Amino acid sequence: MNTTLFRSRHGLIAGIIVVGLLVFAQMSGISFGRGPHSDRTFILLSGWTALAMLLVVAAYVLRKYAHRGGYSPEKAFRVDHASLEVAENDLHRLQQRISSGALKTPALIVAEAGKILKNAGIQRVNRVLVEPGQAGEDAWTVRMVPTEPLGRVARWMHAHVFYGTAFGAVLLMHSGLIPGSAFGWALAGLGHIVFFTGLIGIFLWARGPRWLTAREHDLSIEEASALRASLGRKRAEAISVFDPEVAARFNQLGAGPGVSVSQQKVILDAIIHQLPDRRVEIQDLGALIIQEVLVRQELRALQRVRASFMAWRIVHIPAALLLTGAVAVHVVSIWKF
Amino acid sequence: MDSSDAQASSLLELPLFSKLTKRHQASLAKFAQQRVFPAGTDFIRQGEYTSDFFIVLSGIVTAYRTEKGGKTEILDQFTENEWFGELSALSNQPAMARYKADLPCVLAVLDGALFKELYSFAPDFKTQVDQIYRERSLAQHLRVVPLLKGLDKGLLSSLREAARFESHPKDSVIAAQGDRATEIVLVRSGGLSRTRKNVEGVEELVGYLMANSSFGEWAFLDGEGDWKSTYKTLMPTEILALPIAAIQETFSGQPEIIDRMRNSARLIAAEDQGIDTSFYDVDDTQATDEQLEVMVHSESIKGGEALVIDLEKCVRCNACVESCVAVHEDGVPRLSKKGKRVSAAGNSLGKELSLTTSCYHCEAPGCMMSCTYGAIRRDSHGLIRFVWDNCVGCAECVKGCPYDVIRLTAPPDPEAAAATSWVSSLPLIGKFLDPPKESAPIPEADRGYHREQVVQGKAVKCDRCEGLPFEACVYNCPCGAIERMSPALIFDQGILEMAANNSEEPQ
Questions:
Q1: Which of A134, B192, B403, B461 has the fewest Cβ atoms nearer than 10 Å?
Q2: Which residue of B48, B338, B476 is in closest CB contact with A223?
Q3: What's the predicted TM-score (pTM) here?
Q4: What is residue B438's DSSP assignment?
Q5: Do A64 and B476 touch (CB under 8 A)?
Q6: Is the pLDDT of residue A179 over 90?
Q7: Chain centroid to CA B260
Q8: Beta bridge pairs of residue B173
Q9: Would you call A126 and B421 a contact, using CB atoms and an 8 Å cutoff?
Q10: Inter-chain contact B480–A72, Cβ cutoff 8 Å?
Q11: Is pLDDT above 60 for B471?
């Protein structure tokens, strides 16, 4: 189980926010949503908090897909190889100064290294790590690592998970158990669908990789996919030397999932009977086709396992998109009217 | 006759190049460069990877070596018509010394590919280089052999006449298990596999020996026993064989040195025995075997940081590959998720891992050795880099890479290659907001020496997103499943030491 999904300071922050709102409501004797003991300030506070959380949750999605689409703003920081070489050469000299004892404290080393990066114009791309040297090395070693200006997507994922979960709780405080209007029901309904599918998603993403890894006895899903493509190419090449009529029968053999291995053998025997002088060639091709079928079956089985822990997204993503739109309408309408 | 012609003809007058064929003369004239270094310039640093070969045309160059304790000594001095750099060019190993121009110097520089071409196909050039190597550098190089470590250079010089140079093609058996062992072997370049028959008679891989490794020291102790393993070349390999009898004869009048060597040999033999014991006898042989195999096969022992996927975290969303595509203009992913799997029992993290197929920056890079266009070079920090302008898409590196990490792509669209800003990649309006820039032409002298070849494609591999503030796959994994890791983190230190047996640290 991937427990790192649950270890984050965002969990603490989200928890504090939710508990804070709960305590505030309890101490003020406020009931959730609209009702005789409802409070306008609390409704506004919980509403804005939920909106802020939704924006954080959406930021993860934007960040992830912006990069995949090639629109990361950090790409504008790109520097050329020559600048990196200049910095690396200067850092090498810095290491020699450390070796000779001229620089002794990490603070001094970091300051000097910072100047080097700035002079080379790569301070936005790389930062310097100063680490204690291993036995036989210098007291401190210096190396460049990427700055990762926006932080890793995995960290944004933590924010997505925890603020998304907290969003569900805050939404409940904001709307109450029984929303007062049809639009309120729609908003709350969508919110809870997104919340619960998200919870299922967290569980499945934490557990699913282990299921798939355990299922990948002989072939990984990537290897199975590559092998299937490779066998398919080989089969097509081997079939192309036969007459079109025989080739069509071969193509039928390897085409559908409905033809079992034993049925394939029967069909192959029939082709051999028709072309006895090409028996060896046909048998080789048959072995290739059967192998392809087996790999295809294995691939399908692995894909099914993968689909089992990815399927929640089929509901989660469209519902989240609808929710975002509905929240926008809700906020604008409250603001205006 | 212009100045470059004059330079070329003066170079061809050197005895070293006097017997070159017309084709080699033409390559030399076109691609050897003359460089001027002001007095006091350090032009090669100790520990820096370089594959260039230098000939002093004027001035004096001094080689300084600094030992770990900080003591610096002068190794050698080179004056007019003398050369250096052949060891690094042949072995792809880091420079053993710092080279400094004591006076203003003019040097002729041959890049590694051109040097190897001449060394392989110009017999007279090879003979001269080997002869001078034997006279000047061999004694220094012999200090790499553990048995001879710490011996005075003068003493080692007396061994040079007995040393035998040999070149072996791929898959040659240098020494077979059970045969009579009569010499210590030093690997000058290339690499060997070391296999041993186990108790069931099955051949098992024990380790690799790369350039500057040596084996056979224990034979000194046993008085020429039998080889305990079989040593086979993995690629074209240059070795240097030192007969045990010659060593004993050379130092016969110096019993204290013989004793010291025996002690060293005993230590080496004990370490060797240690490997045998743990490899065959312990209960968790399977785990040890797996670790060793992965480490040795992927060469991650010395390969810097491996790109590792934690299979218990990876949800197979493919974000890593898509992110890789997004940062490379040609749209070809450098990352393949296929890779060597390591079971939870086979690593110290106790997790199911996959060592992805990413460049290992090998100790003896098959790609670089198979590239005859100077398109693959090792940078000063040991990373293997592709010089795209020299690549003609011959695909030899793809065949040469044992790990299938190199892919061939279509020749790049110059407009796309010149576009580096994210603004320019915006659909429809990008090209208007940030028009593509013309890239500067590469000077002829900086190119490889077969430029007449038609460019059929470009070879690509993981470049660790050089120049960007992130490594795309690691940066964009939503589960934090992919990570750069030092092999020491993945595997026990003891296993690393075992696997690295006989691999001498880089000089």
A1: A134
A2: B338
A3: 0.64
A4: P
A5: yes
A6: no
A7: 31
A8: B232
A9: no
A10: no
A11: yes
